[in-house]
Amino acid sequence: MALAIPKETYNGKIYNVQLGTGDKAVTIGGASALPFLGFEGTFPNKPAVAMEVMDIAPDEWPDTVKNAIGGAGASPAQWAKFCQDAGADMVALRLMGTHPDQQDKSPDDAAKIAGEVAAAVDIPLMILGSGHTEKDTQVLQAVATATRGKNCAIGKAVEENYKTIAAAAMANDHKLIAMSQLDVNLAKQLNILLSQMGFDKERIIMDPMSSALGYGLEYTYSVMERIRLAALLQNDPMMQTPIVCDIGVNVWKVKETMAPDADVPEWGGLEDRAKAWEVITASGMLASGADMLIMRHPGAVEKAKELIAELM
Amino acid sequence: MIIIGEKISVIAKKVREALMNRDPKPMQELAKAQADAGADFIDVSIGPAEDNGPELMDWAVKVVHEVVKKPLCLDTTNIAAMEAGLKAHNNEWGAPLVNSTSNEPERFPMMELAGKYNAKIIALTLGKGGIPADAEDRCVIASEIMARGMEYGVPMENIFLDPLILQICTMQDQGLQAIRAIKMFQELNDPPMQSVVGLSNISNGAPKAVRPIINRNFLAMLLYEGLSAAIIDPLDKDMMDTVKAVDMIMGKTMYAHSFLDM
User: What is the Cα–Cα distance from A74 to A83, expressed in whole angstroms?
Assistant: First the structure.
């Protein structure tokens, strides 16, 4: 007797969200089953890999990833072009320099840089503030206006500042990244609040707050799993937005991606170890439902894309 | 829970007049309001409609489907009118629900129609012997109805067993019997049988002010035991909030502070 594979039936489906314009536009989401279970549902879109670019030089990044980027890090536009050439599906511009504790760049400066980056590449753009709740509202407003028509993903909107950032995204036809802090109920609540202010839930990308392998990855994994189960099994319209995982920023500050060979010879060579750390973190996020990843090392991006291609 | 919106009922004066005058507007307004409020089925009750049943049901189904893309719950004791409704129903938005059959011979043809038109059907656990005494009695009648369903080719998942809700003010013990029956119905088949109630019957005869309180609390208790569907007024916000709260407490929807606003 042939083995009958037990199949789960799902009621819901993840929204399709398109980013960018023209030939290089990227659509994420659309899944009708848990990640990569092709025998249970359909997956019209591959998870997208965005490479991170900053508005300041990556001086604080560990050498392994800084060296991989080389001279491109000196200019945001050049860096973005480098990412596009390295095979990234998207560029994620993080405006770290606008943070008051960094260079406290003005919203106008940020808008100018965002415009330059947008002009340098034709792949879609994600634009992230520095994570400073108040400053981000001004910065992202300016940036959203400067990149109007580019169909970017703007963020991250959090509970404290979502109104202004969502309004800026709405006024300039961008998509919105909504972040909650590792809490499935608060993730849902933020999406409800956004919908209540008139922001179309099908234009939201959820950021459940990522972490690095060995540093709480399992918490993110479990939150994402619950979000996806609510979306697919309970057909919860507020949980059916695609998910983005901000990986590089977490991975490239743990000791496994920085400790030199001589300090921990039993861990293997730093170069491969560090890249592997980013790829394995990415694989965990993909397995729990990530529709989009933000990564840093071109070598890790290449491997993550290979993994996605093999699993789809 | 599956919500069957009860507002289009021949008992309401506004609806009765609309049916009589073939005035689509009140029907369509009620249908749309209920669909927007979260009804999964819109009940279309035309009563016995002895004179022109088929033509009336045909008209009613078509005018409602002009404004809502939801399946309808066809509510009449007139067999010919039921068949006309099933023919007119647009199944693109889901199979219609026949309201209703029972264990009384004059209602058997309803089951036959459900089989013929692939419809879902409400089965009242009411037999020749009159009102069932307790939950066990209801299960005996349910089994007979289920056997008849098989005979007519109605899949068990298309049958919604109705324990028959009686007035709490005259038959106080029957409320609990109905709750017990909801639990027991599920044991009659694998996968479990679905169930439905005409909720507001529980408070018939009670003062107007206390009726909503009886209705809401009774619904919560029925839902706890696994009730699948209820014929209610989806425009009653307190009632809908009760449904949402119970669904959330039972883990069927995910909690968020604004869960009532969804």
Answer: 13
